[in-house]
Amino acid sequence: MDRTALADFLRHRREALKPSDVGLPDGARRRTSGLRREEVAALAGMSTDYYARIEQQRGPQPSDQMLTAITRALRLSLDERDHLFRLAGHNPPRRLRRSDHVSPPLLRVLDRLDDSPAMVLSDLGVTLAQNRLAIALLGDHSRFTGLAASDYYRWFTDPSERARYPVEDRERQGIIRAAGLRAALSMGGPDARAERMVAALTAESPAFVDAWERHEVATRFDDHKTIIHPELGSIELDCQALFTEDQSQTLIVLTAKPGTAGYDKLQLLGVVGSQEFSEHQ
Question: Which of 112, 122, 148, 171 gives the lowest tally of CB atoms within 10 Å of its CB?
Answer without folding.
Answer: 112
